[in-house]
Structures are given as structure tokens and as C-alpha cells.
Amino acid sequence: MKSDTKRGIWRMVHAERAALTDDLARLDPGQWDAPSLCEGWTVRDVAAHLVDAARTTRIGFVVGLVRARFDFDRQNARGVERERGASPQETLERLRRVASRTTTPPAPLDTRLVEEVVHGEDIRRAVGLVHSYPQEAVVRALRLQARTPASFGGAKELMARVRLTATDADLSIGEGPDVTGPALSLLLAVSGRRAALDELGGPGLPVLAATS
Fold first, then answer.
1. Reduced to 3 states, what is the DSSP secondary structure of residue 179?
2. Radius of gyration over alpha carbons of the chain, in Å?
3. What CA–CA distances, in Å, run from 137 to 38, 87, 117, 130, 140?
4. What is the mean pLDDT of residues 16-40?
5. Are 187 and 153 contacting, i.e. CB atoms less than 8 angstroms apart?
6. pLDDT, tens digit (0-9, with 9 covering 90-100), for 94-145
7. What's the CA gap between 143 and 141, in Å, rounded?
8. In 3D, which of 148, 134, 139 has the Cα closest to residue 186?
9. Does residue 191 sit in helix, strand or coil?
């Protein structure tokens, strides 16, 4: 990946972290405990996960995965527990401190955009907040999810059965009947967020809905 592209991705990641920190600072205590779009996690849990994700290094990821006996869910749960802190304000302060980090696990750099956009919506939609994401960030995240196997949280296998066509971006991926809608809604749907299905249409929607 060219250095200019890498710098551009990190600028988007850092901007999204800062924007989410600002939004979280507006929440009351009860909103931190609201169920997020990420099944089984509260808003605060998702924020703690983002702290953990921002701190993760390539070596640290491998060590953590081994300790979790190669169970990604267990590894993520341990990260959430480690980074929640004693209060929502402590979680928020931890997120603020890691906002400019450039560490990453051994994965494509665009995974950082998937983390910030999808989990940003996990939080914002749960508490009624609306945010405008850079189109490039959403499109890059969606393209990555489309080529990532389901075993790693992506939708590669699904792309042989449906075609995703964004109505607000020059993007069409996959083969089969169309699923159409905003790129952000497509990204959320292929990332398992059923809340976005109502924002989509097309003859391929039942196929997508069956996998979300």
C-alpha cells in the first residue's frame, strides 16, 4: 500500500475516533448502558472494544489470540473487560487517549475503517445520534468486507449470491440479484446489523436478510 494511501486512511480513522469521542461526551449515564447494534454489547462495551482495538499491535494480537485459545469472541470479550474502566467517563478518557494511535493487528489497514464506521453506528443508532461519514471511508470498508471470509466477520461467500449496488456511490460488488441502498446501510447489513435491512431494497434482499 502506498504511503499516501496509508496516511489518508489513518487521517480518516483518527477523524472518526475524534468525532465519536465528541458524541460520547454528550451521553447521559443511562445511554452508556443502552444495548448497541452489536449483539450482546452495550454502548459502553463497544467503546471499550474500540479502545482495545486501537491499542492492539501485531504481536499483541497474536499473543492475545493464543491466550484465548484461538477464540476471537473470547479475545474480544477479554479486551472489553480490560478497557471498560471503572466508569463511563474513564472509558471515554481511554478512548480519547488512543484516538491518534496507528497500531494495528496483522490485517489489512482498511479493517480500521470497518471498526470505526460499523462500531460508530453500533453506538450512534442505539442512542439516536446521526453522523455523516466520509464516502471514501464507507466504500473502502464495504469493499473490504466483501472480500473478507465470513469466518473473519466478512461477506465474501455472500458475494457469489447477491450483488450490492450503492445508490449514493459508484460501487457495485458481487454476482446475483441486486441489493440496493446507501453504501453505509449495505456495509452495516453485510456486517450482520439487521437494523439496516429496512433501508435496502432489490430482489436480492431476502438472500442478504437470511445471512444477517
1. strand
2. 17
3. 20, 31, 8, 16, 5
4. 96
5. no
6. 999 999 999 998 889 999 999 999 999 999 999 999 999 999 999 999 999 9
7. 6
8. 139
9. coil
Q: Which residue has the cell 487517549?
A: 97
C-alpha cell at 99: 484516538
User: Which H or E run includes 32?
Assistant: helix 29-32
One-letter amino acid for residue 24 of the chain: L
Measured distance CA(170)–CA(198) in Å, rounded? 21
Residue type, 183: A
Per the listing, cell 501485531 goes with 58
Amino acid at 172: S
pLDDT 10s digits, 33-79: 999 999 999 999 999 999 999 999 877 776 766 676 766 778 778 88
Query: According to the model, what pLDDT value does residue 73 have?
Result: 76
